[in-house]
Amino acid sequence: AVIAERAAELAAQREQKWHAVAAGIHERGQLTNQSTGTLVAALTLLFEVKPTPSLRSIATQIGVPHHDIVGRIRDAALVVLSETAGQ
Q: What Rg value do the Cα atoms of the chain yield, rounded?
């Protein structure tokens, strides 16, 4: 029970992290035509799943029309993550 509780807690923390990154992307005026949910789904697949799925695979899974969008999400997230790491 303790292990399951801790796993749920860690999953919630990871989701909060990706929501914060998605908010940071939107605050910078980037990818505003993509919903927070779409960004979070892409970020989870890009940064949590090992080995990382291809951009095309992620685009298909999250329902965006082109894999370039996933690449832009990844690039924007890396900027947000690097800025928050430097604080």
A: 14
